[in-house]
Amino acid sequence: MSIFDTFARPPCAETLSWRLIEADPDTGTVRVAMEGKPAFCNPGGTIQGGFVAAMLDDTLGPTILVKSNGTHYCATIDLHVSYLAPARPGTFTGVGRIVQMGKTIAFLEGELFDADNRCVARATASARVIPTTNVPRA
After folding, report:
1. Could you tell me which of 41, 46, 35 has the C-alpha nearest to residue 84?
2. How far apart are the C-alpha atoms of 134 and 114, rounded to whole Å?
C-alpha cells in the first residue's frame, strides 16, 4: 500500500493510465508508468506535445505527496518542457524529484523515458505546496 491509495484517483491519472512504480519518501523521488495512447498522436504519428507535458506534470506533482507523507500536494505554477526525441505510442516511465521544497513553493525536475529507455523529454517546474485537507479521499 502507498500514500496514493488513501486519495481518490484523479481523472487525468486514469486518462494517462498512471501507476506508481516506486517512491522514496526521504528524497521525494518517484518513478511512475504511463501509457501514451494512439489517441494522443498528432498527424505525424507521435504523441502530441501537450500529452507529453501532461505526463511530465503527472510525474513531478506526486513528489510532494510522497515527500510530505500525504500531508501536502502541489499545484503547478510553471512547467518548462524540453522535447528531446519523438514520443511514439507505448509505455513511458517518468522519473520525478524535488530539487528544493519550502513551506509554500517547491522546485521540481524530471524526465520521461520511452519503452527503449530513451529520454524523450525533460521538465523543470515550480509548484505551490498545498495542504491535502480538502483533497478527496479514497
Report:
1. 46
2. 35
